[in-house]
């Protein structure tokens, strides 16, 4: 007894300690004192010391253009930021197609710009958004950069649309590789790109984070000197005419780690550059020309935005499909250089046209209301668990607290990107954490009904629940892994929070909950009633689920019909959805309000816009350094309607036409590449889950699970059509959430059917399935209710934009409960009959 008390107290102290650490963080110096709150950190102080040439973070320093123009060998080698370039061993590189350069160590200021160098975060606090969790545009806003394409003479305008889409995808990928998975990139007009980076409220820092987006060029020293001379005379000089190769001669670049020579050299980070067929020939000619120089200038300069970002030595002609750039790279600097080279593939440069900060897309109060709703939801979950399961419910609340603390610490340490899709992943993982406990507790109650002691029932309950928990969580992890490795943008954020949450929830349910329940027994709490066992088990009065499957199936057909028809009509140009600006593009209008734009003003402007145009805006946010501008995004409206909006704003807020800061068309921020990525990831995830279910169960059960999954998604789509809820970028997160939830619910039923089939070999499948559905119905209902508590509170207390996100989620979760209880086992039986009959024939 004494040991049990000590161990229980120790676990409680650990949970408290971790909880305090999650809030305060651990810093050097400072300890657990939350020094980040008082740290006077300048967002640009360190960045200003990096020099304009440190664009890529690869160690390039201020290029002395005057000396370079004079042809000074020493200045060229030194000022390009390459250390020991003259002594670089290139003897082995000629045969391998490898060019080498020592790009120098990445400056500490490049990697820690805007941070306090005297403050080191060992474990960042969950409140420390500088060192820890990154919040998305929808929650905290960020910076907005508008780039304009600078087209060279003779450019083929027929290629502009395709090239701008390439630039959009390229910049999005570069932001994702730097960890900004929640950033958005949209086309504005014919030749502009709008980039919004979350949490960076200092626009200048945002530019440094994104890096340069200019044209990539390869030059020898003569070409570079001629270009700098011409540039000093004419600022609009086209640098491409002095280059040996341009970015259009490169098919791609990637950061790699390993042996770049393929020999016995040490493992290192390097950048591999792939050439086009024409580029390969140009590169061979260029290296031959540079290697043949007798004046000591045997360097091939790689130039971005007028700055030398790399200067590899060349000793022989290199005729290869690719080359590698080596040097003092770490993983980050190699990725940045590869990103810069990729950006230079465009046949034009991108010039910064606008730079400012923007407010949260969900509104100023979105964060606070979401946290409040989440807290209330968790309290309701705990109360529900205690009322239904009593002592195990109390233990589940302690385990849930441990789960939340560990998850918060992990998210802070790895600097996760948290936006609405990420929150959706957390909600789903919390639901699965509670679900694992519900499965265990229901099993314990069954063992108690069979006459076992509490101690024996707990051990047996965990043992028998393990397979169901493992299968349901692994199928969800398969989906999360696919979305993480193959997805882009917000899909990656969703997959990260979901995957980590599922892993942590499995650990807490199978270890912490088990440990605490055993301590309850040691404390002599051994009355079965204290573990949720009622006096009598309700018998009879059950309606036959399997026998009435046709009725339930017919109802489902009616519910999914609208969503299915809407999907079928989309390729034929018939759109039944209310596509938002994220998917269809639209209109952006910005006004100077001459006052701080609060949540109240945002709501007023939204209502005014809707009343004037008859269109609900996709978002109304604050913008500008002082948050005195309001930015309205909506689906496309014509010029006459826009003028009506301008007149209404002028009349209501006393504005003038000079206060109209923006009035333009924008393209979809969820571009075709992101849409295609989401569809392909979802399809691949479904296929892999089908294979896993087939391996663990059988093919027929996998088919039934996929049908239930599609059923739940189609019902959610039907709701989007019926209520004309705007189909925005958050729809992807909602659909992926239902994908994970639906599979999880079906697996629990299938696991019980499989278990019962082993002990009832001569019993008809329909009878076994009927019994299994009723045995798992309590779990399904309780899990659905606990998940709805958290999402429901967000719907009730959240801002209007959050309601649009949570309502389809609520419907999808209810659809998942419907399909798992009333359809899944019936569909399994249906496919078993069809496939076996086919084999007999």
The N- to C-terminal Cα distance equals: 66 Å
The total count of strands amounts to 22
Category from helices, strands and their pairing: alpha+beta
- Summarize the amount of helix as a percent range: 55-70%
| Quaternary structure type | single chain
Strand content: 5-15%
Rg value? 30 Å
The largest beta-sheet arranges its strands as 2-14-11-10
Biggest sheet details: 4 strands, mixed
Unreliable spans are: 35-117
Shape: globular
SS element count, helices: 26
**Average pLDDT rating:** 79
What does this structure look like?
The protein is α+β, with helices and mostly antiparallel strands. It has 26 helices and 22 strands. The strands form seven sheets. The protein has a four-stranded mixed β-sheet. It has a four-stranded antiparallel β-sheet with strand order 6-7-5-15. Strand 19 (619-623) and strand 20 (629-634) form a beta hairpin. It is globular, with a radius of gyration of 30 Å.
Write the layout of secondary structure elements.
Blueprint: H1 2-24, E1 26-28, H2 65-70, H3 73-79, H4 93-96, E2 99-100, H5 108-111, E3 120-123, E4 134-135, H6 137-140, E5 142-150, H7 160-177, E6 184-188, E7 192-198, H8 203-210, E8 216-219, H9 221-233, E9 245-246, E10 250-258, E11 268-275, H10 277-291, E12 301-304, E13 307-310, E14 322-326, H11 331-343, E15 349-358, H12 366-389, H13 391-413, E16 417-418, H14 420-449, H15 454-486, H16 490-522, H17 549-569, E17 578-579, H18 581-584, E18 586-592, H19 599-613, E19 619-623, E20 629-634, H20 639-653, E21 660-666, H21 672-696, H22 699-723, E22 726-727, H23 730-759, H24 765-797, H25 800-822, H26 824-840
Parallel strand pairs: 2-14, 4-16, 17-22
Antiparallel strand pairs: 1-3, 5-7, 5-15, 6-7, 8-9, 8-12, 10-11, 11-14, 12-13, 18-20, 18-21, 19-20
Helix pairs in contact: 1-13, 7-11, 12-13, 12-24, 13-14, 13-16, 14-15, 14-16, 14-23, 14-24, 15-16, 15-21, 15-23, 17-22, 19-20, 21-22, 22-23, 22-25, 22-26, 23-24, 23-25, 24-25
